[in-house]
Amino acid sequence: MKSEFTSEFFRGNRMRLRTLYGRATPIVVGASGLLQRNGDNTYPFRQDSSFWYLTGINVAGAVLVMDKDTEYIIVPDQQAHQTIFDGPILEEVLLGRSGVDAIVGEQEGWRQLNKRLKRIKRVATLIPPEPYLDFYGFYTNPGRAVLQEKIKTINAQIELHDLRGHVTAMRMVKQPQELATIKTAIKITTDTLGYIKTHLRDYKSEYEIEADLIQAYLRKGAKGHAFHPIVAAGKNACTIHYNINNDSLSGARFVLLDTGAEVDEYAADLGSTYWLTERNKRETAVYEAVIAVQGFAYSLLKPGVLIKEYETQIEHYMGEKLCELGLITEIERETVRKYFPHATSHHVGLDAHDAADYQRPLEPGMVLAVEPGIYIPEESIGVRIENNVLITREGIEILSQDLVQ
Ligand SMILES: [Mn+2]
């Protein structure tokens, strides 16, 4: 598939970052590193989204340096066996893609950087996240932390300035190439979900649906999944991030899908709940309540809106729906969150849950997911419908208009 991105995009992002942050302090940004899966087997490489946004380069362990009037990328030296096993890293390809002045090898690059870092008081970088994210229960990619350690080893006194706020501010408002790519990812995903809905009765298990998702994404030109898909039949839908996807569909009345293709490095994040049999009255009431909340969310979204206030309004509206369904009698945060335990919206972009400052009012060019859901474990019903919308000057454009709900 033809990429929307040329070196102009990445060069433009670097120029804007230097305008936002200032040119007096050198900027040094690290790529993600390869991660062990088991033994000498690595996980498929996925670049740090912000590093990609500034370089377009998918090399593990690379380092971008922006200093005075020069920009260069240090790429890890390849041992002869790595060139044979992993393929060569081609300098001219990296230069053409990123638009930097030079690609330099590890030794030469760090020799240059070493000299500079020893003499300066501060350097700007993307500060690493905590090594272990308690809330999500996983280890983060150590790429940024490794770079930070290396800088500190060269100059222990050096002050590290954090660029995350600036890069996040830039990533929140999508440029035309980004929007076009997100639209492609959305189209691939909605086409695939449409196919699955039409053939729903042919599937005997969740994993057969998962197999068709990856098959369709790859065949339609996506890189693969933007995140591990959720294919949850029946009561499994009440587990919000269920993704074992190995259950049988026999006896299940519906299946909840939450998935997105990845195109270039951009995500779609969509989903719906499809019935394997005729919806009964109760299921229809729950489904229609979710649709009503979705419509209410759409009516609120426009420039200037604060996500926090938007979520509070939706929580109240959802509360009314849950009362109508006889699930709660009082509309309070705790009662509502028992049946709707997640947020309605998040930004979508290079990451399915994209880098964002949720204190910042909405602006045209932002892309959001809208994903209300109602989960009733005691009735084994879980319904979520997720669309992606673009904030426009007037309100929103639903980017996933083709999603079969
Ligand atoms: Mn989502």
Ligand set: manganese (II) ion
Strand content: 15-25%
Instruction: Give the N-terminus to C-terminus distance in angstroms.
Output: 28 Å
Uncertain spans: none
- CATH level 3 topology of the largest domain: Creatine Amidinohydrolase
Q: Give the helix proportion (percent range).
A: 25-40%
What characteristic shape results from the CA principal axes?
globular
For the report, how would you describe the main beta sheet? 4 strands, mixed
Polypeptide structure, described:
This protein has 405 residues and is α+β, with helices and mostly antiparallel strands. It has two domains: 7-171, Creatinase/prolidase N-terminal domain (Creatine Amidinohydrolase, Chain A, domain 1, 3-Layer(aba) Sandwich), CATH 3.40.350; 173-398, Creatinase/methionine aminopeptidase superfamily (Creatine Amidinohydrolase, Alpha-Beta Complex), CATH 3.90.230. 38% of the residues lie in helices and 20% in strands. The protein has twelve helices and 22 strands. It has helices at 7-21, 49-55, 80-86, 91-98, 106-119, 143-154, 164-172, 176-198, 206-219, 281-300, 307-324, 333-339; strands spanning 27-30, 36-38, 41-42, 63-67, 70-75, 102-105, 122-125, 132-133, 138-139, 159-162, 224-225, 230-233, 254-259, 261-263, 266-267, 270-275, 345-347, 367-370, 373-376, 381-384, 387-391, 396-398. The strands form eight sheets. A four-stranded mixed β-sheet has the order 1-4-5-6. Strands 17-18-21-22 form a four-stranded antiparallel β-sheet, with helices on one face. The chain has a three-stranded antiparallel β-sheet with strand order 11-14-15. Strand 21 (387-391) and strand 22 (396-398) form a beta hairpin.
